[in-house]
Amino acid sequence: METDVVVIGAGPSGVQAAIYAARRKVSTVIIGKPSNSAAADARIENYFGVIGPVRGRDLLDNGIIQVKSFGAEFVEENVITAERDGKSFIIRTESGKEYTAKSVIMATGISRVKLGIPGEKEFIGRGVSYCSVCDCNFFKGKTVAVIGDETEAAMAAELMTKYATQVYWITKGPKAVKALVDRALLAGVIMKDVSPKEIRGDGKVESLVLGDDSEIDLDGVFIELGAKSAADLAMDMDLMPEMDNTIKVDAKYATKVPGLFACGDVVGKPWQVARAVGQGCMAGLSAADYAKGTK
Ligand SMILES: Cc1cc2nc3c(=O)[nH]c(=O)nc-3n(C[C@H](O)[C@H](O)[C@H](O)COP(=O)(O)OP(=O)(O)OC[C@H]3O[C@@H](n4cnc5c(N)ncnc54)[C@H](O)[C@@H]3O)c2cc1C
After folding, report:
1. d(C-alpha 74, C-alpha 68), whole Å
2. 193: CA distance to ligand 1 center in Å?
3. What is the pLDDT, as a whole number, of residue 295?
4. Domain 2-111+227-292, classified CATH 3.40.50.300, yes or no
5. How far apart are CA 225 and CA 94, in angstroms?
6. Would you state the pLDDT for residue 175?
7. What global pTM score does this model have?
8. Do domains 2-111+227-292 and 114-223 have the same CATH topology?
9. Which residues line ligand 1 (CB under 6 A)?
10. Sign of CA dihedral 176, 225, 262, 275
11. Which residues have a Cβ under 8 Å from the Cβ of 29 and sit 6 or more positions away?
12. What is the pLDDT of residue 81?
């Protein structure tokens, strides 16, 4: 099937991009699974106009209704291959659907690096978080641990001292710049030089067991290990991701490959809905204009 714009990814950024492209009256297909969006498990209270927390899943469900109401086709599948064919792109989905598009928007998000210890998966959203900026407010007056060695972890540990009463930083030797480590320690963070072993609880997080078999009673565990990006697809479309796996874009959210745009978490930090949606708006307009030949 031929179309003007294909959006890969059905998170906040892709959905917003598809809304803007469809309303520009170009044929638009959005391909992705909202249930796999980072926002699907989020409880959001820092997005404009939302007196939260609201379920990210509800925002996504409403977004899909909107996108369809403006005439875009929604395909709830993964894209398995994407390639360039002259000035067009050929996109194939897992069920074998094939789309030839004049422009493509990558809104594929990132997947947060997991620890892989017992209890982690079980307690996501019930005390385990991968985003201190998002979830800090839910841990006011509580005890939390931040796990990780790099800049993200140092900044998260310091941030959490403004909310939690006690913050532990579990690190096998901090690799963040010294000034950030010092700031976290000065703010009262207790550093523990030992690996995390297991997260325990009953319905919600209650403790963290460490490699030396000691156990800390706490309410939250922030896993701040960075992210992997779905940048493989970009390479299939002749675009080399940056060293940190993000996709570089210009002010119109265009990549170096003509007709290929990107927005949202895949473009870089901060990983936030407001930013992803703003970029989705821009990318949707740019991709539609490109497809119309009016870039
Ligand atoms: C637990 C949690 C809580 C959060 N809380 C908040 C908060 O309170 N406030 C806030 O602002 N932000 C929060 N965030 C961050 C926010 O969810 C993200 O910044 C936002 O979802 C990014 O949107 P996105 O569209 O760029 O990426 P995503 O939402 O991750 O969506 C990416 C989409 O691309 C799809 N995709 C990937 N590869 C393919 C492929 N090959 N084919 C088809 N589709 C593909 C995915 O399935 C998904 O649908 C939270 C994140 C998490 C994990």
Report:
1. 7
2. 32
3. 53
4. no
5. 30
6. 87
7. 0.83
8. yes
9. 8-14, 31-34, 36-39, 41-42, 44, 46-47, 56, 78-79, 107-109, 129-131, 134, 230, 233, 264-265, 271-274, 276
10. negative
11. 1, 3, 5, 6, 7, 72, 73, 74, 75, 99, 101
12. 87
pLDDT of residue 285: 98
Name residue 112's beta-bridge partners: 227
pLDDT of residue 192: 95
* Residue 116: alpha-carbon gap to chain centroid: 19
Strand order in the sheet with 196-201: 196-201, 205-210, 215-217
Query: Domain residues of the chain, as ranges?
Result: 2-111+227-292, 114-223
Report pLDDT for 153: 93
Check residue 94 and give its pLDDT: 85
pLDDT computed for residue 24 by the predictor: 96
CA 25 to ligand 1 centroid distance, Å: 26
Mean pLDDT, the chain cut into blocks of 10 residues (295 residues total):
97 98 98 94 92 93 98 94 93 92 96 90 93 92 95 92 97 89 96 96 97 96 82 87 89 97 95 97 98 80
State the pLDDT at residue 264.
97
Which pLDDT score is estimated for 243? 78
For domain 114-223, the CATH architecture is 3-Layer(bba) Sandwich (3.50)
